[in-house]
Design brief:
Strand content: 15-25%
Helix content: 25-40%
CATH architecture: 3-Layer(aba) Sandwich
CATH superfamily: Vaccinia Virus protein VP39
Largest sheet: 7 strands, mixed
CATH topology: Rossmann fold
CATH class: Alpha Beta
Number of helices: 10
Radius of gyration: 18 Å
Shape: globular
Number of domains: 1
Distance between the termini: 24 Å
Length: about 280
């Protein structure tokens, strides 16, 4: 995940310095990877996990110093592994650390590794995927900022049976939108959000989150994702909302998987339905 500091872990390799919220987020992604790969293992010849912001494979909690596996390692540590893993990170040092950590696992898989911008790597990822009619895919797009252009996301998923889990950095957007409106347009897939968003930011910033999420989910529906869901979000130690996880599927079964996942919080408690503003 981009936008976070790098530190040295106990194994001497680099790791992401992050907060408790990252541990919680990875719990959702870990459980999603597990239920997806197990649930779909008899539905296609291939099951592929794509992570466009894979990182070095290890994180350090900035508050406690606790180390924990990053989402790529957790996506491997499941009962029924994916048949193909594709890991990308723009930082070659992160990919080198991730590769070393995966190779140190017992019975490691043989992922494909890429070191490119998340938008520019899309053609290479698509070339590396099996034939679309033989493959089921889960893509994790865990960017701290708004690096992933919507057009690139549409190109990645076009014609594929691919569920997606996208980090939607609502806190970052609401702090920085004035500085990079063109960049925000690319992330959101157009500028149709602007008028209601500007109005909400002037009158009631809490409603601005809903404007952006509704716009993004509307664009996802336009490219075939009829089941978007943003019911999960992460907060920092001060309980300030950082981002939503926007999950989307083109098939009702993918939506069923996600609904099962989000019934339980990382703490193990059952989650209550909450407002998403």
């Amino acid at each position: 995940m981009s936008g976070q500091g790098l530190v040295k872990a106990n194994d001497g390799r680099i790791a992401l310095l992050t907060g408790q919220w990252s541990l919680d987020k990875d719990d959702y992604i870990h459980r999603l990877a597990g239920i997806f790969s197990t649930g779909m293992k008899n539905q296609g010849r291939y099951r592929c996990l794509i992570d466009l912001f894979a990182g070095p494979g290890r994180c350090v909690n900035e508050d406690t110093g606790e180390e924990f596996p990053g989402s790529p390692i957790q996506a491997i540590d499941i009962r029924d592994r994916f048949t193909r893993y594709l890991f990308n990170d723009i930082n070659p040092n992160s990919i080198a650390a991730l590769r070393a950590r995966i190779e140190a696992l017992e019975s490691p898989p043989s992922p494909m590794y890429f070191t490119n911008d998340c938008n520019e790597v899309v053609p290479d990822i698509r070339k590396a995927l099996p034939p679309a009619n033989e493959s089921l895919e889960l893509a994790v797009i865990d960017a701290w900022g708004w690096e992933m252009n919507f057009d690139a996301l549409a190109a990645l998923t076009q014609g594929r049976r691919m569920d997606i889990a996208v980090t939607f950095p609502i806190g970052f957007i609401k702090r920085n939108w004035r500085k990079q409106l063109d960049r925000l347009d690319k992330f959101l897939g157009g500028d149709g959000y602007k008028e209601p968003f500007f109005k909400a930011m002037e009158q009631d910033p809490r409603k601005a989150s809903r404007v952006l999420l509704d716009h993004y989910e509307g664009r996802l529906r336009e490219i075939g994702y009829q089941y978007p869901n943003n019911a999960v979000w992460m907060v920092n130690s001060k309980q300030v909302k950082l981002y939503h996880i926007v999950f989307a599927s083109k098939h009702p079964r993918g939506n069923d998987f996600w609904q099962k996942i989000i019934k339980r919080a990382p703490s193990g408690q059952m989650r209550m339905a909450l407002a998403t503003s």
